[in-house]
Every structure is written in C-alpha cells, then in structure tokens.
C-alpha cells in the first residue's frame, strides 16, 4: 500500500512562499475585522484562503490563514511579506496582537493522494479538493515547482502576481467567491461594502478562466483580443495551456480570440457556478 501511495503522490516545492506568525489575546478578533475569509471558528490545523482588500474592494494581498496552537500563520507570496506586515501593523492600533516573520520554513504542495503526508504542519488546501495538501516543515524539499503550476492551471485556480495584479482586481474576478475566499456571512471587513454589492447584484464582468492553444503560448501579460477588441490579459502559462482574466461577454460573443497572434480556446472551469453571459 505504501509503495503504491508513493507512486501516485505528486510533490512540488513552493520556494516563493513565506510565513507570517500572528499571536496575542486579540488576534482572532483583529483578523476577523479586516480579512475577507473565515477566521472565527477555525480549528487548529484548519485553513481559510482569504485576502486583505483596499477600502475600494480590490485585493492588496492574498494568502492562506492557518490556525495553529499558538495563534495563526499566514502563508503568502514572499515578495508581499514585508508590506503585508506593515499593513497589518497599520490596522493593529492598540490591539493585543504580535506579528513576526517565521524563518526557515519550507512550503510544499502534495496531491494525488487521499492520505495526508507527514510534516510539522499540514493543511488541506481549502480552495479545491484536488489541490491536495500543503506541508510546512524545516526539511529541504525535493518536489518540482513546475508540476504545481501545471496542476493549478489544469484546475483553473488563479494565483496573485501571475493571473492578476495586486491592487487591481476584485475578489470575484479571481474566483475567490467560488472557492471560499470570501465569507459572505461574516460582519464587516475592509472593502466589504463593495464586495457584497458585487455579490448581490451579480455585476462581475471579468473572470479568470482557462485558455488553451494548438501551439506554444504567448507569455504572461500578453493582451487577449476578441474580434480585435481588448478582452483581458494572459496570466499563468505552461506549454499550451494557461489562465487569463477576461471579459466574458466579449470573449463569448467573439468569432476569434487571440493573444500575440496565437489563436486561443476558452473554457470556464467545471467547478464554478457562473456561466457564459447570455447573448444580447
């Protein structure tokens, strides 16, 4: 059994991730008041995926929020850590909350197994069951990073900095309403009014969806054109598949969709609850 499990298991190192530790008597309330995701009620070893928004409802930082024995960990892009700590300090005021960067932690993704791997801290990825597990440990990781990129694209899961620019996208546009990144039952948080309005009015025009081509893809950041009109931009790419943040109405009604001279096929992921807009 163990041999077969190891053969099916896929492991990927995620070297561009870093950890922030948040502790203190008021950590739970502090985080719940500013983040989009579920905070209150998380069990030890359970994680939410969420974001800290601008007051106008756009994503400044996205991350995994993990409940630990001592408080919370935030797993976010390494390039965001210092700025995120500064922003959290700004909101902290006099709250009894401590913030620090955790050093020497390796982050790995494991999938293709129903059995959890071993590690100092393990969570199930809350965004999609097929994303598997995330492991946090001090050991040297061995997995191939590109395997995770391919897997994420195949599932249609966007990632900040690749599939959208921080400060320039709403949670609905990058599917956070679809995979639990926004808790619509909780009270106020930064940017909540705008996000709630988009949810209730169904006004989201742009979404991250899957794209594919018959030849090698144009690079990340290439404009996507639908019948000659700008419809969005290419995000994550791997060989002949990728993701793109697109205007669904323009793409669906277009006779041709292309980026950098490459003809594209578009596909809405099968796990979301939105569809192509009806023809006008």
- The share of residues in helices is 10-25%
- The low-confidence parts are 1-7
Question: Could you say which structural class the secondary elements and strand pairing correspond to?
Answer: alpha+beta
Give the strand content.
Answer: 25-35%
What can be said about the biggest beta sheet?
Answer: 7 strands, antiparallel
| DSSP E strands, number | 16
Number of helices: 6
- Average pLDDT, all residues: 92
Radius of gyration: 19 Å
Following the backbone from N to C, one meets helices and strands in this order, namely: HEEHEEEHEEEEHHEEEEHEEE
Shape descriptor: globular
The CA-CA distance between the termini, in Å, is 55 Å
- Biggest sheet strand line-up: 15-14-11-12-13-10-16
What is the secondary structure topology, with strand pairs?
Blueprint: H1 2-8, E1 10-13, E2 17-23, H2 27-32, E3 47-53, E4 59-67, E5 72-77, H3 81-92, E6 98-102, E7 106-111, E8 121-124, E9 133-137, H4 145-155, H5 192-201, E10 206-212, E11 223-226, E12 229-238, E13 241-247, H6 248-253, E14 257-259, E15 262-263, E16 265-267
Antiparallel strand pairs: 1-7, 2-5, 2-6, 3-4, 4-5, 7-9, 8-9, 10-13, 10-16, 11-12, 11-14, 12-13, 14-15
